[in-house]
Amino acid sequence: MNEFDADWERLLKTTEPAGQRTFTPRHMLQIEREAKGMNEKRNRGSKRRVAAVLASALALIVLVMGVLPAGPYTGWLRDAESRTAGQPNEASTPGEVTPDEQPTPDGREEAIEPQPPAETEPLTGLLREQLPFVIDRQEGISIHRPDGGEDIDLSVMEQSYLMQSLYGLDFEKARAPMANNREDVYFRIRDGGKTFEIPYEVATNTILWKGQSFYANENTLLLMHRLFKPESKLAEIAAFRDEQQLAMERKEDTVNEGSYDAELLEVDGKLFPDWEREEAKLTPKEEIGYFDEMFGEARKVVVYEEGVIAMSLSYFFVDDRYRTSSGAGVGSTEAELLEKIGEPNSKSSVAWSYRWGDYLRVHFYMKDGKAALMYLTQPM
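RE: above sequence
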């Protein structure tokens, strides 16, 4: 369980576009934890900051002011007033207990383990080689919100997405620009009775490590949009991905081995290669970077004004202006898809997919008996 199986990754990418890069050997961890009855409740509202007393507050001041070098650091050593990780902070007033530092409801205190100080030289190698906790052994992850919002406990599947991002991150290839002012939340990872904290910014999909910024992967990007920007289209895609993953695990997919004419599956008269050229004519509304472990490079998810989202060798069409040449699109009912195209080659309660040639090319996210999203994929 210490290495990803690249063959599995490639197989899933070619055969199940809606579930790209969602299954890894980390799912063995999911099976183990579910067998032990892991509690997956979210938003329990526990605020797990250390209860500050005079002696500990003074010790924090000495540590931050006297030990750490000047300049940015990662955020594990920060006071409760900090809202921006990666920047030096002044310690809170000795003896003052801020809302972020209240003891947990059961009276236990949760101390955050200090992270090594910032490094000025660009980091090299892999993040997993420097983590002070064991990825496969971690005992739970929550997201801490310094704005006073409730902490969020991640489910096993969500933890798998995040652990994959931390496991596969390459410092040189995932490097991201360093923002002057970050607005971070914090991944809190529990391992061996200790809690470690890693800053993450939703707007840029970047984590902070030793004072340097790196892109998280696409799964982390989608997960965090679902949690913090639930009205966004990326959040809708994230929910679809999660439902599709569960449908795969339930083995509810049925298969039709036939193939359709390409003309039936064109979207606005174009297949995937044509949309690659058409993309240059669209108007970007939002661009978010992510690290693609499969290709070993930083890429972008682009949300276009025209109702198209380009991500991970896929084009998502999120409104009903786009139609296949056969007339199917967002809003089409199951009966209309059967009438206009035919029986899908891959069918579950969540997704209907159609093939031409050797690969599934056009897909519909089904919700309440209708297509909520339509997307094209490019086979590997």
